[in-house]
Amino acid sequence: MTLEWEQVIVHSVDPTALGQWWADALGWVVVHSSDEEFEIRPAPDRLPGLDFVKVEESKKAKSRLHLDFRPDDQAAEVARFEALGAKRVDIGQGEQSWVVMEDPEGNEFCVLGQRQQ
């Protein structure tokens, strides 16, 4: 059996706004847009992508799945995400080497520290 990871689905009250926010934050391209769905990818022919799908209700609890990013410069990336509208959040992680943040709809993601050599 062969599988290819196509995308991660993100439920969103406003898929276009949230999808565009993530496209800007990651430098990705939009590959599909409609009233109900907004898909972005690293490049038009590169997988996996993020597919933002419309739901009526807003997020109510801690996300059960989130994205982790490993930057060259954690402080610079955290500052860049904050400038785009992301917020630091405390989900009970305590003192860690990563920074937990949330996007404009409250979906958590982590900006990890520099990889140990």
UniProtKB/TrEMBL annotation:
<dbReference type="Pfam" id="PF18029">
    <property type="entry name" value="Glyoxalase_6"/>
</dbReference>
<dbReference type="InterPro" id="IPR029068">
    <property type="entry name" value="Glyas_Bleomycin-R_OHBP_Dase"/>
</dbReference>
<dbReference type="InterPro" id="IPR041581">
    <property type="entry name" value="Glyoxalase_6"/>
</dbReference>
<protein>
    <submittedName>
        <fullName>VOC family protein</fullName>
    </submittedName>
</protein>
<feature type="domain" description="VOC">
    <location>
        <begin position="4"/>
        <end position="114"/>
    </location>
</feature>
<dbReference type="InterPro" id="IPR037523">
    <property type="entry name" value="VOC_core"/>
</dbReference>
